[in-house]
Amino acid sequence: MKPFKTLCVVLLAAMLVLTTAACGSKGKTNDNLQTGGSASQKQDKKTIVCSADYPEYTSVDDLSAHADYVVYGTVLSERYESMSLRIPESSAEPAEAGQDNEQTVVTVYEVRVKESYSGAASSGDVLKVMLLGGETEDTVYQYEDSTEIETGSEYVFFLSGSQIVENGAWLLNNTQALYAANGETVSKTAEQGFALSFERLEAIKAQ
After folding, report:
1. Domain that holds residue 113
2. Is residue 92 part of a domain?
3. What is the pLDDT of residues 20-66, one digit of tens each?
4. Which pTM value belongs to this model?
């Protein structure tokens, strides 16, 4: 399940013009995607600014009730992929005309689970945490309220499971579902987040 709807507009660097555009990048394959780039290279790229309609939550209890996974883990790697977000109702369901070409750029973070507080993940498992946005050779897809995740850092994630990628999961939203952690303390990464602690996470695990 993907917990969002998206809308994107194109920003041309030297012009004050906004043009509505599809958020997907048609015809792109994973071979055309990059895992990074210098600042000068990024400045040469077209930027598409997108917004996603995520649900909002009222409390930590509300977050955990809607999460398929609540985990504490370390970010191992980051990469960009182009994928279809469409989930067929069955393997026999025919694809709609042109549907297979609808590709969306996604940033995939491999996260090694240190502790699981809810869901089927176990310590040592690697989840593929996905966020909308990323880069191709010529375009940057940037989402409003996007959450910065750093490789090598530790976080608590509230996640919705995905059928698109094996061991894949989406953040429930960009502002309330990610918390920086260091083994002793947990802190929100956006103003909309909630007060959270490892004691509170243990209480979620005990439920």
Report:
1. 6-85+102-206
2. no
3. 333 443 333 344 445 555 554 556 889 999 888 889 999 999 999 99
4. 0.76
The pLDDT assigned to 184 comes to 94
**Concatenated DSSP letters for 88-149?**
-SSTTPPPPTTGGG--EEEEEEEEEEEEEEESS--TT-EEEEEEE-EEBSSEEEEETTPPP-
CATH number of the domain to which 30 belongs: 2.40.50.120
